[in-house]
Amino acid sequence: MNNNKLTKPGFSDKIYKGFNYIVLILLAIIIIVPVAWAFIASIKQDVEFYGNPWVLPQGFYLQNFADAWEKAKMGSYMLNSLIVTAIALGLLLVIALPAAYVLSRFKFRGSVFWNTMFMAGLFINVNYIVVPIFLMLNSGDKAVRGFLGHPIFLNNLFVLALVYAAMALPFTIYLLSGYFKSLPKEFEEAASVDGAGYFRTMVQIIMPMAKPSIVTVILFNFLSFWNEYIISMTLLTTPGLRTLPVGLMNLMAAQKSAVQYGQMYAGLVIVMLPTLILYILVQKKLTQGMTMGGLKG
Q1: CA-CA distance, 75 to 66, in Å (whole number)?
Q2: Domains by residue range for the chain, with CATH
Q3: pLDDT of 135-169, one tens digit each?
């Protein structure tokens, strides 16, 4: 008898595999059904909501999207969210990439302290300190109003993006540092022999190798910034500066009382679409970024 042959899976293995499949199918149903229902509801007319909610729509009533985009100002809210998210991601990458590279590849006086500080930031939920942040910015506005004549910290999209970037720094540096540590140092030594400095080595050698991890960071933080509600609601009180989540909550409150459910679900779909499209585009890189760091080193 050949002992090198692979043994066939036993009955218990089949039960375990079948159980896993059942759990995964149930989880998929729990996630997919509400999303699909929202898409279907967004193309229904308001009178169709008074019957069976699971009945397919009689047609494609796309006017809901036009009403949500123009009348409910979802287009303006989306532009605000795009501006804030783009600025926050830009600030975050400009600060986090060099910081993670230095903290992961070099030992210097104070490196342990800074690593500890950034790791401690992982345990701070910024939603719990949003009130002190608001009071600090409000005090700053009171101080500058005397010689500028108008506030500059509250109701400012750039300041909101700065808060978002600061909020995401600990997790981003933690994730990038772990990936940078898994990269062989021979690449940097070869670049040093060729006369490349630290900055050029980081930009031309390390960052291209860390592209899957960078894509993962961008996606996670994009989802966090795009869907954030509490900080945006607190720091932006002017209606014209609202971001999508705040605008969507106001739309839902208004349309429930107005019984315009189709417009409400259309607004919900407008919020979901960018995240779904982004995930579809980068899902392969996302998988690589989440697994490669664990396979190396």
Answers
A1: 10
A2: 65-295 (1.10.3720.10)
A3: 999 888 888 887 777 788 888 999 999 999 999 99
